[in-house]
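U., I forgot to send this yesterday:
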Amino acid sequence: RLFRSSHKLLMDTATFEYLFCNEFWAGDAAVFGDIFAGPLAVMEEALQAGAAAGGGAGVLFGGNFDAIGLLLMIRINREHQVIMARRRVPCLDHYLDGVNMTLWPRFKTVFDAHLRSLVDAAGGGS
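Result:
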């Protein structure tokens, strides 16, 4: 829930700020980048810290060794990309791609560990 809620807040805030900057500063994208650099850095830092700690996406994003939870976060992130594309607001494309690139390797690691556990259990039981 925290992953979805924090990203929904980020998307909504970024959308309104992007549209305002686009209208007020006549399409100068650098202004939005300057304004939103801080919040994006905080979100990226939390995501990277969680991935480095081996917890999927850290405490902020419910990181753990739950493959289904990680897959849900990947799916939610994909839906967020679709929402931003539908809004025609490209300002978070790079960030959301980065989230995807952080979550998929972690999911693969966790899923492979689950598979190894099942193989070991099956081999140990016979």
